[in-house]
Write a structure and sequence with these properties.
Elements lengths: L5 H8 L13 H16 L7 H9 L7 H11 L34 H21 L5 H17 L7 H21 L3 H18 L2 H17 L3 H12 L6 H17 L3 H15 L16 H14 L3 H15 L6 H18 L2 H11 L9 H12 L8 H13 L4
Helix pairs in contact: 2-3, 2-4, 5-6, 5-7, 6-7, 7-8, 7-9, 8-9, 9-10, 9-11, 10-11, 11-12, 11-13, 12-13, 13-14, 13-15, 14-15, 15-16, 15-17, 16-18
Amino acid sequence: MGLPNEALRAARLRVASSRAPGEPMSRSELASAVSAWLWRETGKRHDLDPHLLAKWERGAVRCPTAPYRAALRAVLGVASDADLGFADSVPEPPLPPAGPDPAEHGPPAGADYVESLRGAVRQFVRMDSLLGSGEVVDAVVRRFRDAQRVLASGRYRSGVERDLEVVAAELGEVAGWMLIDAQRHSEARAVNAEALMLAQIAGDTSMQWFILSNQALGSTYSGRQREALRIAERFGEDARIPVRVRALFRLRSARALGHLGDGPGALRAFDRARSTFEDGVSDRDPAWAWWFDERELDGHAGSLHASLGRHAEALPLLSSAVDRAEGKERQRWALYIHRACLLDSALAAGAVVEAERAAVAVAPMLGQMNSARTENRLRRALSRTSRAPLPSTLADVLDHLRHRLPQR
């Protein structure tokens, strides 16, 4: 458990109770006020439990997620997270402004509207890197739906039709990826299908590859490994597709085979993916392929070995992925999941020193990042600790992680 958050408690006690004259605001009142503020401001229901609020004040959960911090600032009348004792929270960039909806009112959508969507894509991708998908996924889905409504209404200038389809498809790709990370697989599947259709209508072949590569990964995670394999093999074996994209699809094949329990086939597929990757980049590779690098390859290699139960072999690969992501702002989410995977494999392999290092490193990111996929991996790691006694230092930091993990 962390140190008590006296600043948060003091800020609550400075506000008068509306239920008991002469008394300070209770935790129950604050929880209700925070939930009401979030409903008014976001249209999304949050039923804050006073017991969770108590954990924030006790320091058992060091830093709530960004929406709760914003509501606390508003309700308690403070200017910054530091005033609430959350000085170590990651400053989040503002959500891209939605602006007027051309499908509902105003002039038809033109080049300015298309450019606003492109800016939103860039901002959402950055926010995902800094904060994790859980903080922004609903906003991305809403913006994707807005763009779809404009297209469906026909309220756009004829000269921007294809550009609008292209950027709407890209918004759908971003939304689909974040839904996969949020473990909302049915929604991700629907959004990916809609985005894929937009990319096909626009003739944007490279975006179709991107969406299908994401869906292959999502299908693997949601138990549709054969579907993932069909997608990945279809495009991974097509010589007309750029080298880096083929390498990505071959990597998806390896992960699907690993989840199917075909160890030799998975390792062969991964070797082919790495060999293709090492052929290098070309001017035919799409711009979106920038993130598929050595760090990504090492992370998936480690996770593949872990899925086959080869945790000792996974450790150096996951350590390399962590090292490659350290200190890079645009890879902060990647660092979060690599550290979680490293902790899981270290505990499974009985590598106590490695496990303690990984646990200490990942602990400050809890509350700063929001990724259901990563937090599920941490829960799996913590479930391993009952199998054998652990040194007290490691047991303490794992208990700290257990208390800080967000409630499901």
